[in-house]
Amino acid sequence: MIQKPLGKVLVDGGYINNYQLSEALIKQKANPSLKIGDALVQLGHITQEKLQEALKKQTELAQKAQKTETPYQLPGQEISLPIENKEVAALVRLLIKKKFFTYKEILGELKGG
User: Fold this and answer.
1) Residue 113 pLDDT grade (very low, low, confident, very high; cuts 50, 70, 90)
2) Residue 23 has pLDDT above 70, yes or no
3) Which sequence spans correspond to the domains of the chain?
4) What would you measure as the largest C-alpha separation in the chain, in angstroms?
5) Helix, strand, coil distribution of the chain in percent, nearest 5
């Protein structure tokens, strides 16, 4: 399941602003075991209740995204590619079969390069 980062959910949902997120990320960098939500609560930028609300929203967004993705299994591959459009999926399979691209290159592009 692909999840939208919590910080983005919080900013997009209007719970915090980018500056507050940056402060929490700096705090988290100083203490890598600290979760970003906990850092925001410690800084007073968000309440525990709002954090729980945002975490629920993050899960809902991930579930919604998963329902809209259709995984297409490539021949001889264990991992499927999340491609919604059947024609695009067919083209990707053809490009891999004709050795224009490798499976790993395509997967890397789909995951953001």
Assistant:
1) low
2) yes
3) 6-68, 71-110
4) 55
5) 60, 5, 35
CA angle 91, 95, 98 (to 5 degrees): 135
Confidence of residue 86 (pLDDT cuts 50, 70, 90): confident
CB 91 within 8 A of CB 100: no
Structure confidence by residue, pLDDT tens digits, 26-66:
999 999 899 999 999 999 999 999 999 999 998 888 877 76
Question: Helix 103-110 and helix 86-97: axis angle, to 10°?
Answer: 150
Cβ(36)–Cβ(71) below 8 Å: no
**What is the pTM assigned to this prediction?**
0.57
Count the neighbouring beta carbons within 10 Å of the beta carbon of residue 27.
16
60 backbone dihedrals φ, ψ, rounded to 5° = -60, -40
Region class of 51: left (phi > 0), else alpha (psi between -120 and 50), else beta: alpha
The whole-angstrom separation of Cα 90 and Cα 87 is 5
